[in-house]
Amino acid sequence: MNKNNQKRGMDNQKSTKLWGGRFQNPTSDITERISSSIHFDYRLYKQDIHGTIAHVKMLNRIDILSEEEMRNIEKELLSIKKDIDENKFEFSASFEDIHMNIEAELINRIGDIGRKVHTGRSRNDQIALDLMLYIKDEGGEIKLLLKNLIDKLVNLAKEHIDIILPGYTHLQVAQPVRFSHYLLAHTWAFIRDIERLNTAVKACESMPLGVGALAGVNYRNDREFLRQELGFNKITSNSMDTVSNRDFVLDFLYFSAILGMHLSRFCEELVLWSSSEFAFIRLSDSVTTGSSIMPQKRNPDIAELIRGKCGRLYGNLLSLLTTMKGLPLTYNRDMQEDKEPLFDSVDTVKLSLEGLFEMISTMKINTERMNTSICSNFSTATDLADYLVMKGVPFRESHGIVGKIVQHCEENRINFFNISVEELQKFSSVFKDDIVNILNPELSTERKISSGGTSKKEVIKQIEGINRKLMEITIV
Fold first, then answer.
1. In the annotation, is 264 catalytic?
2. Would you say the pTM of this structure is higher than 0.90?
3. Catalytic residue among 28, 170, 237, 429
4. To 5 degrees, how large is the angle CA 82–CA 1–CA 338?
5. Residue in 15, 66, 284, 291 annotated catalytic
6. Which tens digits make up the pLDDT trace of 348-403?
7. Between the CA of residue 333 and those of 174, 209, 327, 328, 442, what are the distances in Å?
8. Which of 73, 133, 173, 339 is the most buried (most CB within 10 A)?
């Protein structure tokens, strides 16, 4: 939506407040400005109109609205939606929020019939409904982005299943692993993110509309009809809890924060691996930028920005937790501050997922550099210790023997991977000619036979398991 058009007429348009019956004096400028939320909650218009159409159908069922009135209201609401879709609608700050803007425009278009629309509901249950519908809608789009990212990672793992590179602990070369195993490690994290997203969306399955401001309403409203019409699994059980609850927003912000952390960790490795020191990958020119002073630079800005945006996602969660912690039941205006963190997290998550997908889709893998790097820093030292264990040496003793071998190689500048059997036998007579294959880092991964390890067989099992998980993912 064009923001200039969105704000058009906000500051100068004067109107009578729809809630202003008991007030004698107009609200002050600062009250208008601090109360207004239309500059950000306009994006709930689809959900607000969807909920209002269901509400007017229910009002028809309980004889508040005639059939003709119901059809007329629904027609005009869809017309308002079309105008907003096409950027033809002028929002007004004087109407404060998306609910009042739409209701005021409805009254303007169809007269007093429109004044019946708010019968039996409050902005308190209305906004709870809008936010739940919004999270459900956006959750589907985000789940699709995550699924596409997981698909891409699985395909990359298949394509590069035989590439070996160093695995790290403490950012020090530790043991050889398959590049595919590394990619799948991030993939499993994203699968857990989908599970957390499902939890957040599930928290939006109790239909809140129809409880009014806090105590229920004085009409025999049909909440079960509203539930079915709006596609919820159940209705809320306590009116006070319904209008004061923002746990479902917090669930979504928590999901976003954890996903942001996973994205940030992945991007940190892309930054490192695209450096000249690592050079494991080369990011495409399309996802890198240059320097204003150093002409040779290719900066991984997208990866860095996604890494940086993680802090915003953390902040959004903490912001709403702090807002909610001291509020007495039920609704308080502080809760208007729930929307901007939510909207920002939705936008940030979607942008970050698209950015990571583009980077991994266009990056080049430097297999030669990866192969060279595994032959450094004694990456098969643990294999050597395990060799001794298999020959009957207790692990703590074998650990000490191999530690001395490493020290000997460092002090005498001996290539650990080419050390002779005769040299090794100075440290233990257990070493035999079969030690040659144990030292080879390219063969190390196939010795990792435990379930979930980095052997080719286990990596293939992981891919099959992830594919089964993907088949279970439903996009609504």
1. no
2. yes
3. 170
4. 100
5. 291
6. 999 999 999 999 999 999 999 999 999 888 999 999 999 999 999 999 999 999 99
7. 54, 19, 10, 11, 62
8. 73
